[in-house]
C-alpha cells in the first residue's frame, strides 16, 4: 500500500466503527478518523490516526476530511430506537450519507464501503433466515431508524448503479468487547449478566461478534462487488437462548418468565406518550414490541461464498463481551 493512501472512517466513536478502525489498523491502513463536533470521544484502544472533524449534517466538513483518501468506510449513523424528531435522523442517515458518498467520488476516492444494517432488509413470513434479496413489506418498516436505513440503502444503490464504486454491508446485531455507550443490545447483555432481566419476550435475533463484522468490512473492501450488499451476521438465536448463554457464562439462572406481547402494548403506548413530553428515551414503544413479534433471522451465505467471511459462534461473542465488561468493572 502506498504511504500516501489514507483510509477515512466515519463513526469510529461508535461500537462497530471503532472495531472497523482497529481491524484496518491491524491490516496496515493509514487511518483518518472523524469526530462530530460536540459528539462522543474516541474510545480507549483507538489506533493511531489523524483525527478530523466531520458532521453529517454539515456538508462543508466533507471535502477537507476526504482530501487525499483512497478509501472511505462510512460507518456513522444516527442509531436510536426512539427519536423525538424523525426528520433530524433522516437528514443525517439519508441526506448526509448521500452527500458524503458524492463528495468521496468528487475527491477521487477509489472505493467506498457503506455500512447499512439488516434493519434495511426484508423478513421472511415463516421466520426462516432472510437474505439480501428477501422482499421488504410495509409492515417491516417499523420505526424511524429502520425506515431511514432502508431509504438510505436504496439511495446508495442508485449511486452505485450510476457508476460509483460502492459496496454495501448489512451487519446484524453485534456483540463483543468495546461497547462503551452501550448499544441497546449491549445494555441488554449487561442487564442479563447482572441478573436484571427476570423475563423475556419470544423474539429471535442474529448475534454476531463485533470483530467479525469489522473483518467483514475489510473483506468487502477487497472482494465485494460494486453495488452489491452483503449481510455480516452470525448465529440465529431466540432471545431465550441468548439469555441462557449469558446466564451459563455468569453462573446465573436463566429467566423462565415469558412475557406475552399483546398485554404490554397499552403500557408501551403510555411510555411513548411520556417520552414525547419529557424527551427521555422510553423503555419500550409499540413499534419495538411489534418488531419483537418477528424473528429477525438472517443468513450470511453470500458473504461467506463471495468474501470468505467466517463468523464465530454467538457463545464466543458473549464470552468476549463479558470478559470486557468485567475488565471495565461494569459487572458487579
Structure notes:
- The protein has 332 residues and is of the alpha/beta class.
- It is built from 11 helices and 12 strands.
- A 7-stranded parallel sheet has the order 3-2-1-4-5-6-10, with helices on both faces.
- Strand 5, helix 4 and strand 6 form a beta-alpha-beta unit.
- The longest helix has 21 residues.
CATH architecture of the domain at 6-172 and 208-233 and 301-311: 3-Layer(aba) Sandwich
Given as residue ranges, the uncertain stretches (5+ residues, pLDDT < 50) are none
Given the structure, what is the number of helices? 11
Coarse structural class: alpha/beta
CATH superfamily of the domain at 6-172 and 208-233 and 301-311: NAD(P)-binding Rossmann-like Domain
Determine and state the CATH class of the domain at 6-172 and 208-233 and 301-311. Alpha Beta
Question: Mind describing the biggest β-sheet?
Answer: 7 strands, parallel
- By DSSP, the count of extended strands is 12
Task: Work out the radius of gyration.
Answer: 19 Å
β-strand amount = 15-25%
How is the largest sheet built, in terms of strand order?
3-2-1-4-5-6-10
Indicate the mean pLDDT: 89
End-to-end Cα distance, whole Å, is 45 Å
CATH fold type of the domain at 6-172 and 208-233 and 301-311: Rossmann fold
Helix content: 40-55%
Order of helices and strands: EHEEHEHEHEEHEEHEEHEHHHH
Choose one word for the global shape: globular
